[in-house]
Amino acid sequence: MATQVVMPKLSPTMEEGQLSRWLKKEGDKVSVGEPLAEIDTDKATMEAQALATGVLRKILVGEGQTVPLGAIIAIIGEPDEDISGLLSEAASGGAQAANKERIEDSTQGRAYGAPDELAQVVPGGARTQATIEGQPIRGDVGGRPSAPQAGAPEATAKAEPAPKQPQAEPSGDSGNGRRGGRLVVSPIAARMAAEAGINLNELSGSGPGGRIVKRDIEDAVSRAGQQPAPAAQPEPAPQAEAQQARTMPLHSPTFDGAAPYREEPVTPMRGTIAKRLVTSIGPIPHFFLTTEIEMDRAVELRRQLNELDPENKVSLNDLIIKVVAAALMQHPAVNASFQEKALRFYERADIGVAVAVEDGLITPVVRSANTKSVGQIGREVKELAERARSRKLKPEEYTGATFSVSNLGMFGIDEFTAVINPPEAAILAVGAVAPKPVVRDGQVVVRQMMRVTLSCDHRVIDGATGAKFLQTFKKVLENPLYLLA
Amino acid sequence: MAVITIREALNQAMREEMRRDESIFLMGEEVAAYQGAYKVSKGLLDEFGDKRVIDSPITELGFAGLGVGAAMVGLRPIIEFMTFNFSILATDQIINSAAKMRYMSGGQFKIPIVFRGPNGSAYQVSSQHSQALESWYAHFPGLKVVMPSTPADAKGLLKSAIRDDDPVIFLEQERMYGSKGEVPETEDFLVPLGVADVKREGKDATIVARSVTVPIALKAAEELEKQGVSVEVIDPRTIRPLDTDTIIESVKKTNRVVIVEESHQFCGVAAEISAQIMERAFDYLDAPVKRLSGADAPMPYAKNLERLALPDVAAVVAAVREVAYLD
Amino acid sequence: MRPRGEQDEAGGAAVAVREDAAPDQAELREEHEHRLEEQRKHVADVDRETLLRMLYQMVLIRRFEEKSAEAYTLGKIGGFCHLYIGQEAVAVGTLNALRKDDYSITSYRDHGHALVMGTSPDEVMAELFGKAGGCSAGKGGSMHLFDADNHFLGGHGIVGGQIPLATGVAFAAKYRGTDSVCLVYFGEAAVNQGAFHESLNMAQLWKLPCIYICENNQYGMGTSLSRAMSLSDVSKKAAAYDMAGEFVDGMDVLAVREATLRAVERARKDGSPSLLEVRTYRFMGHSMSDPGHYRTRAEIERYQERDPIKVFSTTLRESGVLDDAGLKEIEDRVRAEVERSVKFADESPEPAPEELFTDIYASPIKK
C-alpha cells in the first residue's frame, strides 16, 4: 500500500514550499510521525512528518527545489512493492494540480464559493461606528408602549455620510397621506383602495403622520355610496385619469421620482368636471347597453336635408338628438332622475350635448328637443358650441338637461361608454359611422353602421327599460320617416 | 370536566404517562422526597418509587446529559429543571447533544426526552431567577419548544411532549401553577404539538400571546370589547415548530397585530413572529406589527420596578388601540 | 484539545524545528525489554483467537489512520481530523473486554473506536470523505462517527460532553435490569471539565455501570498535562468520588484489556463504576493541522520504541502465537481492506441536496 508524500500545507497562507533538507534518504525505513524533510514555507522552516510506515522508496524533489502545494515529493512503500503507477502519476503533473486545488478547497472552503470575499478585510464604516456609539436598544416595555419611536433609526441616519444624490423633500407630515413627497399608506389600505377604485391622492390619512389606513378607505367607500354630493377634497380627475387612478393608485410611493411631470393649476372648469364626474361613477350604479344601428337611411336623409338647405347644414348628431328626444317621449322612464326619496320624470326632452373645448368639455342643453326640428336643433347646437368654445355660455344654458348625448365618432371611436352626468339617469355614447359588411337576406352587403352605448343609472332604469328605449331609438334612426309618423 | 390547576394538570399528565409507559422516568432536583420544588411531582415518588422518580444532585449539566444518554438507548426521560434559569448550565447537553444527535448520526438515534420546569418571571426573585429562555431554545433545529397557558393545554401538551420522539423543551410558568381551568378527564386527552389555539375570536386586531401573557391578553380583550374593539387572541402553544398559518389567517382578517411576551424583545420570539407576518401577510397589514415585551434590562427586585418590567393589561390595551389608530 | 482552536494553532505554528539531544539508546532498549517481559506474563491467559483479533484490529487502525492522513493531505478529508496512531492499544484492549450488548462512546478522536466496535472501514472512510455511504450519512464527519447497530454511540465534539451521556447509557442499562456496561473515552484534558466530575459523582452515587477511560496522551492539544492540572495523577481523582480508580500502561494492549475486564466485572456485579487512567501517547499531532512543536523528537522516539503494535507483535511472535507469515497475512488483509475503503469512499456519492433537511426530527411536524 504505497503512499504518496505530498508537499503539505504547513501554514494557512502557504502556496508552495522549498524542500530545504531531506532527513531520510531513499531506502531508509521510516515510521509514521517521523520527520522526513525540512520545508521552508513562506513563514518559517517546518518539518514534514511521515504519514505512513515503510521504506522511503523514491525522492522526487531535490533539496533546494521549490514545488507547489500538493506536489508529490516522495513515495513510501514496502521494499518490494511496485510503485510505477504512482511514479508515472507524479511525472504527469496532473495529479499535482488536482491535489493542490483540492487542498486549497478543503482548507479554505473555496469549493463552496465566497471565501474570496471572506478573505477581504472590510473596514468598519460610519454606520458601524454609529452603532457602536449609538444608544441602547429601546423596546416597548411594561406599562408604556412608546409613541412614535424616536430611538435608533434617526440616530443612525444622522451619522450616515451625506448621500451624493439629493434625497426627496425634507420629511414632514402634510395631512393627506403624504410625507416628504411620498404617499404614506398601510399595505391593506393600498390594496383595498386599488380594489375599490379609490384614488389615494384624494384621501387624507387619519393614521400617525397622515398615514392612510384601512378605516380611511372604508369611510371613503361608504361616503361615496351614500351621498352623491361632491367629495370632501375634489381634485382634477377627468375620465381617463380617474380610470387610470383605479388601476394604479400607488404610482407615487412605489415608483417615486420615476416619471417626470409638469403641473398646471386646476381651472375652475376642470374642477367642476371633476366634481361632477366623481359624484357620478362612484355612487351611481351604472350599467351599459350597446346596440348597432344601420345608418344608411339616416345618412341619406341628412344628405337630402342638406341639399334642400345648403346654408343651414345639419349633422348626423343633430338627427341623433332629434331621434333621442322622440324616443324619450315614448319612454319617460329613461327621461328621469333619482331624487333619493322620489323618482323624477321629465316631461320634455332637454338634451345635453357634450362639446369638447380646449381644456375640457361642456354640455350645453338643447331645450325641448322633442318639439324642435332637426334644422332647428342643428342651428342651436352650432350656436351653443361656438359660445361654449369662447366661454360665453350662461349657467342656465349648460345645466338642467334631462338626458345627454356624447359623440366621439368624429375621433374615429367605434364604441365607448360615457359617464352619466347627474342627476340625469342616462347618457348615450355615440361612435363613428363606418361602412361594414353585414348580412341582409342571407347576403353579405356593405352598410353604414354605427354603435351606440347607453349608460343607465340602475336606480332609475332597469335593464329592460333601457333596452326598450334603445330599441325605439334604433328603429327610428334606421327609418327616420317614423319621425313623421 | 374537572376544574383543576395547571400544577395538578401537569402532575396528572406525568402520572398517566408513567403508568402507561415503563420507560418514562422523572429526574430533577427535589422531584421525589420533597415532592417537587413547586409540587408538580407531588405523589409520584409514592406511586412509582425511587427507581423512576429520582432526586438528582444539583448538577444540571450532568443530569441533563444523563437524560440524553438514557434517551439514546431507548428510555424516555423527563428532566425537571427547578427553574429554567438553571438549564443555562445544561445548554451544552441540550443544544450540542440532544438537538443534534439525530442529525449528526445520519438519523440513527432518536432522543425522546422532555426538559421541563418553570420559565420566566416569578415574584421578586430578581435577575438570575426571572428569565424567559424560549427564544434561546427555539433558535435550534432539532428541539421542539412548548409553552402552555391553561390547565387543559398544560396536560394535553405535556402528554404529547412525553410521547414525542424528539427532545421537547416544555416551559411552564411559576406564576401560573395555581391557574385553574377545565380539563377533560379522559386519559387519551392530548393536545398536538405545533398547533396554535385561538383563545378568543375577534375582528379588529390580533394579539399573539403565550404562557403568562395569554391571561393578560384575554383580560385586555375584555376591556377593549367594552371600548368597542373586537380582539382575537392567539396562543401559539408551541413555539417551535410555530403554527404560523393560524397567525397569518388571523392577520388577514384583522390587519393589526400586537405580540405580547414577557421575554426580552431583542432577537426574541415576537421578533420572529413579526418577521413571518411581514413576509407572509405584508399586504394585509394596516399598521406596523407591535411588540410588547419584557424590559430590555435584567429583572429588578423592587416590586414597583418588577411591575414596570412586564407587560400588563393596560399596556396591552394601549398597544391595541395604537395599532387600531384609536388614540 | 478543543477543535475550534486549531486554526489558530496551525497559524501560530511557524517556529523552527527543535533540535534535541538523541535519546539514550540503552535506556530505550531497557524500556522495550521491560514491556515485552510484562506482556509475556499475560499472553498465556488469553485465547489465540482474541490475541490475533486484537493484533489485526490494531494494525487495521494504524493503516487506516495512515491512509486517512494521506487522504487529508490530498484534500479528500476536510475539517478536523484527529488521528489515533500510537493509541491503538487503548481502544483495542478495552473494547475486547466487552460483550455485544455493551456500549461505547467517545470523543472526536473516534476512528479507532468505531472500527473496533464493528463499523466497516468502508463506512468510516466514506464518512471522512463526506459521502452518502458514510456511517453517519456524511452528516457527522470525522468527529461524529455513529453506529447504533454495533452499540457505538458516537464521537462527540465538545470536550467532555460524552461523559454525562455515557452515564445516562449506564443508567438505562441498570434501569432495565440488564448487566450491560458502558465504556466512555476522553482525553486527560476533559478531566478538568465539570461534566467529568458531575458524572463521576452521579455514577458512584447511584452505582451506574459506567467505565470512565481517560486516554491520557499527556497533551491537551498543545498544552502538556503538568501545565493544566493541579493533580496530574488522573486515576487518583476517583478517590474524590469513592470510586475504584486504576492506572494502566496504555502501550500494552494486554494490560489494558485486563484492567478493563476487572472494571467490567465490578460493573456487572453491582453496577460499580470505575475510572481507568490509560497512559498512552499519540505519535501524530493533535489533529492534522498540528505541527507538534511542543514536543521533542527524542520524546517521540522514546515512545515509538514502545509502539504498542511493535511490542504486541513481538510478544506474539516470541510466544509462538504468530510467525512472520502470519503477521504478513494480517498486514496484507488490512492493506486490502484499507485500499478497498478508499475506493468505496471515492465512489460513494455525495449526500443528495435534500438530505440537508432530513434527520432533524424523528417525528417532524409538517405545516
Summarize the structure in words:
The complex is a heterotrimer of chains A (485), B (327) and C (367). With 485 residues, chain A is an alpha+beta fold. Chain A contains 15 helices and 20 strands. In chain A, the strands form six sheets. A six-stranded mixed beta sheet of chain A has the order 11-20-19-18-14-17. Chain A has a four-stranded antiparallel beta sheet with strand order 1-8-6-3, covered by helices on one side. Chain A has a four-stranded antiparallel beta sheet with strand order 5-4-2-7, with no helix packed on it. In chain A, a hairpin with a 4-residue loop joins strand 4 and strand 5. About 20% of the residues of chain A have low confidence. Helix content of chain B is 36%, strand content 20%. Chain B has twelve helices and 14 strands. In chain B, the strands form three sheets. Chain B has a seven-stranded mixed beta sheet, with helices on both faces. In chain B, helix 9 packs across helix 10. The relative contact order of chain B is 0.12. The mean pLDDT of chain B is 97. Helix content of chain C is 44%, strand content 10%. Chain C is α/β, with parallel strands linked by helices. In chain C, helix 4 runs parallel beside helix 5, helix 4 packs parallel to helix 9 and helix 7 packs parallel to helix 8. The N terminus of chain C is likely disordered. In chain C, helix 8 links the parallel strand 3 and strand 4. The longest helix of chain C has 26 residues. Chain C has a six-stranded parallel beta sheet with strand order 2-1-3-4-8-7, with helices on both faces. Classes of the chains: A alpha+beta (485), B alpha/beta (327), C alpha/beta (367). Chains in contact: A-B, A-C, B-C. At the A-B interface, helix 6 of A face strand 14, helix 11 and helix 12 of B.
